[in-house]
Write a structure and sequence with these properties.
three-stranded antiparallel sheet; 44% strand; 1 helix
Length: 66
């Protein structure tokens, strides 16, 4: 179970969110960039709403119940 606002950073958490269809929010610094479901992920990226975000440049936050 994930808490609203919890940081998502490792592959296990990403897989849980993708399999369970729990939305995540994407931030660039403190600026909101996107919110949606993970389509896929790799070592360097996370794809949300078919947009690829760098795991090094962006922050990913759990948004269960959104």
């Amino acid at each position: 179970m994930y808490v609203n606002g919890q940081l998502i950073y490792d592959d296990r958490q990403l897989l849980d969110h993708m399999d369970s269809e729990v939305p995540i929010q994407v931030y660039y610094g403190r600026t909101h960039s996107d919110i949606g479901y993970i389509n896929q992920y790799g070592n360097d990226y996370i794809c949300v709403n078919h947009v690829y975000y760098s795991r090094r440049l962006y922050t990913f936050v759990s948004r269960p119940g959104f």
